[in-house]
Amino acid sequence: MSDAIDLTVMYAMHAALRRELALLDRVTTAADRDPRQVLATAAGWTLFKKALRAHHTAEDEALWPPLRQNLAGRPKDLALLEVMEAEHAAITPVIRAIDSALTDPGAGSLRVGQLADALTRGLAGHLEHEEEAALPLVQRVLTSEQWDHFGRVQDQRIDRNAPLLLPWLLDGADEPTAERLLARLPAPAYAACTARWIPAYAALDRWSPGTAA
């Protein structure tokens, strides 16, 4: 495997998505509140969708295409990329269905819970599949230049919501991971993240109703 491919950001994103899936499950199974009200007005649901969209869009645009190019003539490995893209495509309709249910008076909390469970199973399964099969392939086949390009594309996607998504990505990360993530930032972004963005994020009860921006 190539030492030039540092998967720190990838695993940090996966850990953050799994963290939010656990919180989503807690919200949609709680007996003392309506999950429709929570998801419709909580910052946590919005942040989760923005982070997932940034991550998957970057993979679709800047990770799978060069990997497919490098795997020409290897049908078994190319089939894996098709599966990765199909798993991405299957997740988007579930998120849309949840959002539609939040505005549908006829959709009860049970329906939202069922959709959230489908999202959790689908995304968690995809993350595990990607880590077990696709990322080892990335490390063996992708060049450092191609990997760096993917990182820049993902950074650009995240940058649109950096004041919230960077602290979101750092939330719960161990010290070595946090240090690596912060070290990637330009000096102005590093200063803003440590002085303003992280404290503001820490004060946000993002899975409570009425916290959405």
Task: Tell me what you see in this structure.
There is one protein chain. With 213 residues, this protein is an all-alpha fold. The protein has a single domain (8-202), classed as Four Helix Bundle (Hemerythrin (Met), subunit A). Helices cover 78% and strands 0% of the residues. The protein has ten helices and no strands. The chain has helices spanning 8-29, 35-41, 43-62, 64-70, 75-102, 109-141, 144-159, 162-170, 175-183, 187-202. Helix 3 runs antiparallel to helix 7. The longest helix is centred in the middle third of the chain and has 33 residues, at 109-141. The termini are far apart. The relative contact order is 0.18. The mean pLDDT is 94.
Q: Radius of gyration, rounded?
A: 18 Å
> How would you describe the shape?
globular
Order of helices and strands: HHHHHHHHHH
Helices, by number, come to 10
CATH architecture heading: Up-down Bundle
Task: Report how far the terminal alpha carbons are from each other.
Answer: 43 Å
Q: Structural class, please? A: mainly alpha
Helix percentage range: over 70%
| Number of beta strands | 0
